[in-house]
Write a structure and sequence with these properties.
Strand content: under 5%
Low-confidence stretches: none
Mean pLDDT: 81
Number of strands: 0
Number of helices: 20
Order of helices and strands: HHHHHHHHHHHHHHHHHHHH
Distance between the termini: 69 Å
Radius of gyration: 23 Å
Structural class: mainly alpha
Length: 501
């Protein structure tokens, strides 16, 4: 109980800043937030805090151990075809059941068939999970693979412009961010740790990360290809449904049951065939699954009922009051919202553990907050001036890939994983509605697909730069320390020579 209490306390500290911002805005008459909306948001905030705490507890007890055991167990079989087949199916099924993806599919169903989008993204993740596993097996440098596929992404983006479907580009890049959600991230990251522990070499730190980064590319490529060959109408419409909490909870419970059901069924098939873990470990994992399930239901219900509608209303009202105020507020909201992303804390703990404390949770969190805050502020600038996402994406990824040539490989892997993790359910459930509302207030509904979407992809891109800059700073700091140490040694030698003479 003490561990659970500490998890809930951490969740309270994480969610408190963004909750206080909403309360402050509710006191201002310009936003016209009703008493009923405030009560619903308050209940949602409590559910969010408890949900994050339970989810983090469940991730420690179940999701991370399951991924580690499956990864190491498959690797010990020494059958590459089995490892690849299982990872493809696992990546596809987990992604199809990812609640974040369901949220995005519901928001773009006026543009694209939601079921087709979900299956397309699932196949993309499964295929690139294979590539990520092959990278570990054959010990290839992550930066080179990322450069190859991002160049392919930009080439497909040019094809979209030729086909006059460039408005689909933001949605395609957003799909890469939402696939790495609260269910997928702990499992895939732990899978990488497990495989790397068995097959890793001197670069095992780098190999244990990077799976999330590569799995984020697959959906973007798949959706871009789908957009090129489809004949969909690009007319977009957006509606906010004020659902009762109980009705929303029942719907979320059903979707989470499917998500966890697929993962648990797959895990127990592995348990029967080759894992054979002792009963004590299985009972601990089962308890963790219960915590994960309850936590996700509470968390996602809070997003759907409280944070999604209030984010849309704040964005639209603020844009109508002062479009320039959107930029600083976007910066602040972005820095605070990332604190409430449940998978962020899982990533930070794994990073500190794998790197032996060399990359601390505090430095990771500061880098993510700065990066995400800047991404939201830049998104507000794009909404105001109405220009294409490519003016951010191409220079941003060029800088990210260029930095990967100068920083230690482990920082590149961590940075690209952080990008996928930062764009979690709080981003799709609060930030995206905030951006949609702001876009409607400034440009109208016709520009939403072009200007509001893409905010998730910018959130995913910003940590690529900030985290690698941390690595660059670490290199410079180490070199300065080495020079100082060498200078002290030389000074000591000179002093000994003088004393001898």
């Amino acid at each position: 109980m003490k561990v659970l209490a500490s998890k809930i306390w951490e969740a309270l500290l994480s969610a408190l800043p963004i909750t206080l911002i909403v309360y402050i805005m509710a006191l201002l008459p310009w936003f016209a937030i009703s008493a009923q909306e405030l009560v619903t948001f308050t209940i949602s905030a409590v559910m969010l805090i408890v949900g994050i705490g339970l989810f983090n507890m469940g991730a420690d007890l179940a999701m991370t151990p399951m991924g580690t055991h499956v990864g190491s167990g498959l690797s010990r079989q020494r059958k590459l075809w089995l490892l690849l087949a299982v990872c493809f199916v696992m990546g596809m099924l987990i992604t199809i059941a990812e609640p974040d993806l369901q949220v995005l599919a519901n928001q773009v169903k006026s543009v694209m068939n939601g079921t087709v989008l979900i299956w397309t993204v699932g196949i993309g993740v499964g295929a690139f999970l294979l590539i990520a596993i092959l990278r570990i097996v054959f010990r290839r440098r992550l930066a080179n693979i990322l450069m190859l596929f991002y160049m392919l992404l930009f080439a497909l983006a040019l094809l979209l412009s030729v086909n006059e479907k460039l408005d689909l580009l933001p949605m395609a890049f957003d799909s890469g961010g939402v696939t790495t959600g609260p269910i997928t991230v702990p499992f895939i990251m732990a899978l990488g740790v497990g495989i790397s522990a068995v097959l890793g070499d001197r670069r095992s730190q780098e190999n244990s990360f990077g799976l999330v980064a590569l799995c984020s590319i697959g959906p973007m490529l798949a959706v871009l290809l789908l957009g090129i060959f489809s004949d969909n109408d690009l007319t977009y419409s957006y509606e906010i449904h004020n659902m009762p909490i109980l009705s929303a909870m029942l719907g979320v419970a059903k979707s989470v049951s499917i998500a966890l059901g697929l993962i648990v069924a797959f895990f127990f098939i592995c348990q029967i065939t080759f894992l054979r873990l002792p009963k004590r470990q299985l009972l601990k994992i089962c308890l963790g699954i219960v915590f994960t399930y309850v936590g996700l239901v509470l968390f996602l219900t809070a997003i759907e009922v409280g944070f999604n509608p209030i984010g849309f209303k704040i964005g639209k009202t603020l844009a109508q009051l002062s479009k320039w105020a959107m930029i600083p507020l976007g910066l602040v909201i972005g820095m605070l919202v990332v604190l409430a992303e449940p998978a962020i804390h899982v990533l930070n703990e794994q990073v500190e553990e794998v790197t032996g404390g060399y990359v601390t949770k505090k430095s990771m969190l500061i880098g993510l907050c700065i990066g995400v805050g800047a991404a939201i502020a830049l998104s507000m600038v794009r909404i105001i001036f109405d220009f294409s996402l490519v003016y951010y994406i191409i220079p941003g990824y060029f800088i990210s890939l260029a930095l990967s040539l100068f920083v230690p490989p482990v920082y590149t892997a961590i940075a690209f994983d952080s990008g996928g993790v930062a764009s979690g359910p709080m981003t799709s459930g609060f930030i995206l509605p905030f951006a949609i509302g702001a876009c409607m207030g400034v440009q109208g509904s016709d520009a939403v697909l072009r200007d509001a979407f893409g905010v998730v992809s910018l959130v995913a891109m910003a940590p690529l730069i900030t985290i690698q800059l941390l690595g660059f700073r670490a290199i410079l700091s180490n070199r300065v320390q080495e020079r100082r140490a060498m200078k002290r040694i030389l000074d000591a030698d000179d002093q000994q020579i003088i004393n001898f003479m």
